[in-house]
Amino acid sequence: MERVSERADSEATYSELRRWISKEYGSTGLHQLQEASKVSGNTSIKVLKDFFTWFRDEYPYYRGACKSCENNTDFLGLVRPGESERTEGGAGVCEMYFCT
Q: Can you tell which superkingdom this protein's organism belongs to (predicted)?
């Protein structure tokens, strides 16, 4: 998977997203998503739920303990990233936590 910091300073295009989904989720999955976008109702919702479940399982996101003190944390909100987060990690937003 391509790191954000290695990309140009632009959003992914529609064709780039389609290529990525086809490669990672499969061409059948991409086709199902495209067809679901043309209809409304339970079928399209199921296709989206299946995709989001796959994405969550494939790219899990864990909010663990504080890396400094190892205590639990409470989420405070989103903040603008600092210079190092923007340049080194390509961050557009950062999450702020408070150690409990």
A: Eukaryota
